[in-house]
Amino acid sequence: MPEFFQFLVSGLTIGAVYALVALGFTLVYNASDVVNFAQGEFVMLGGMVTVFAHAAGVPLPLAALVAVIVSVVLGLSLYWLAIAPARGASAVSLIIITIGASILLRGAAQIVFDKQFHKLPAFSGDTPVQMLGAAVQPQSFWVIGGTAVMVLLLYVFLERTLLGKAVLATSANRFAARLVGINTTTIMALAFGGSAAIGGVAGILITPITLTSYDVGTLLALKGFAAAMLGGMGNPLGAVAGGLLLGLLEAFGAGYISSTYKDAFAFIVILAVLFAAPQGLFGRRTIERV
Amino acid sequence: MLAALRHRYGILLVLAVIIAALPLVFPSSYYFRVASLVWVSAFAAIGLNILMGKAGQVSLGHAGFFGIGAYAVAIGPTHLGVPPLAAMLLGCALSALLAFLVGRPILRLKGHYLAIATLGFGVLVALVITTESRWTGGPDGMSVMKLTLFGWRASGSDTWYWITGGLLLAGTWIALNLDETPTGRAFRALHDSEIAARVTGINVNRFKLQAFVIAAVYASLAGSALALMNGFVNPDQAGFLHSIEMVTMVVLGGLGSVVGSIVGAAVLIMLPQLLTVFQEYENLMLGAIIIVSMIFMRDGIVPVLSKFMTGWRA
Fold first, then answer.
1. pLDDT score recorded for residue B193
2. ipTM score of the complex?
3. Mean pLDDT throughout A135-157?
4. What is the pLDDT of residues B173-199, one digit of tens each?
5. In this structure, is residue B15 part of a structural domain?
6. Is position B18 within any domain?
7. How far apart are the CA of B50 and the nearest CA of chain A, in angstroms?
8. Beta-carbon separation of B291 and A267 below 8 A
9. Is B221 inside any structural domain?
10. Whole-Å CA distances, A68 to A62, A76, A185, A212
11. Is A136 part of the contact surface with chain B (CB cutoff 8 Å)?
12. Domain extents for chain A?
């Protein structure tokens, strides 16, 4: 039983990060129909900027703030410089643009920073907490708690503010949103900025546990995309559920069956789920018109 | 020369002339090697374009089939005593069978769901290759025996230039001919509207599966050719990044355009070679070039250029 709890905690910790990446995917996808493969790079940026700012003598909370600001600025630039000029291009062309952006961001990071692995000090020390026989890193609480706060903030923003409702309206029907006077271009920029902020925070929270380097983004983008699809593309709560589920699958698969095939379980389950429910677990059914 | 590209024999002739003439201006064997890489990648891209550009189905896991072809010619001769050429055909058969089995359930999915399912398939293949190190040499890869045919050993970058060039010509020929067959027309109908195609009596599932199997066989053959040429394989060839690279070649060159796939492959193989002079700025430049060319040529290099040329003349 202690090991069950151990796997549960590590699964939820890594799953929380996948959930944040998936949430970023969903936010951008809902507002603009773009699948942003550069989403993982914001996680990398969040971690790397914090590490280097901290190393330069900036206190950790301030360094984290700088990292989030840098992520948001780059997220907005991605939208204004690469996505907005390509308005009207096909979905697959836009995907290639975001792939280009992710190569560019990775290339920039390897020049501005370096190619080494970097670590941040854990926010509340490294002494494990004993819970139900399992040793839990205090940082895990930060990751899970931080994710919960982000999800809550996003929920309140979308449901309780006028701007948030404009985002929801844009996701539901961009044309109709424009007709009622919503500036959908601003909303899309907001979605890119917001998803960059979410990615940046995820990077800051997880770096003390998993380390970071200029090329961690690709794998995270892949897992985040998988999580978003598992939950059902376009559904924010589905994205969170998909992320947590993916993390748990990996942790339990690695713990009980085989650690070398840890990534396999997640994808086998995704394939199985999609065969049974082609719209993901919580996805909407859509009807195609001819 | 532009007018020639309007007709399929013209395209084939121009391609043959280019392949035949290039060695006249190549100063060193390095150029032969890069050109052979272009031919092999173009071959794989043409196959993927049949699936993506013609039949309109995305695959983000096609490097999986590339990897199967590559490891078939590595494992076959080394562990099982199968001659390289037979191993290549076995790899092809295995890829086709796998594409057939996996394609049936996967191709029911649409859009991004299809993308993630094919991506998952590719990741699984790469994972098996990386993990089963007793057979595959694991993450370090393994060496591949040289191809010998009736006592003649295929080695040297100029020999492989001609082999891969011939392969590309054959692949281009088949892809161009496919356009004019009922199957090719069914693919295009499928691409434009699945429901409309179904209404006109096209067996949508069968044709999707056919396109998937064809693309898998192309990728598998390309993988085998590259492995035999390099004398070495590693798991990266089956990896996610290689899948993405293949898709980028197809889209950058122009979805649905056979010439586009060749151009896309040439650009994506040669760019990093040219950009090495920028040293650490290489990735930065590559990313920027991909973004800029997709913004200004959103339908792909070849379709945009040909539209530009015809409009300019009229």
1. 85
2. 0.86
3. 93
4. 999 999 889 999 999 888 888 888 888
5. no
6. no
7. 15
8. no
9. yes
10. 10, 12, 22, 16
11. no
12. 2-276
Token code pair at residue A7:
């796997």
Mean pLDDT of chain A: 90
- Tokens 């589920």 -> residue: A245
> A27 vs A162, A193, A237, B124, CA distance in Å?
16, 10, 11, 28
CATH number among 1.10.8, 3.40.50, 1.10.3470, 3.40.1350, domain A2-276: 1.10.3470
Two tokens at A249?
């699958």
Give me the pLDDT at residue A288, please.
57
Cβ pair A226:B195 closer than 8 A: no
| Chain A contact for B284 (CB, 8 A cutoff) | yes
In a domain, B53, yes or no: yes
Q: Which one of B192, B200, B295, B304 would you mutate to disrupt binding with A, by most A Cβ within 10 Å of its Cβ?
A: B295
Question: Cβ of A96 and B294 within 8 Å?
Answer: yes
Residue B121 to residue A271, Cβ atoms within 8 A: yes
pTM of the model: 0.87
What is the residue range of B172's domain? 40-313
Whether residue B196 lies within 8 A of chain A, CB to CB, comes out as yes
For chain B, the domain total comes to: 1
User: What's the pLDDT score for residue A127?
Assistant: 86
Of chain B residues 46-75, which have a CB less than 8 A from chain A? 52, 58
Within 85-144 of B, beta carbons closer than 8 Å to A belong to 105-106, 108-113, 115-117, 119-121, 123-124, 127, 131
pLDDT over 90, % of chain A: 57
Give the best residue of B291, B297, B299 to mutate against chain A (max A CB count within 10 A): B291
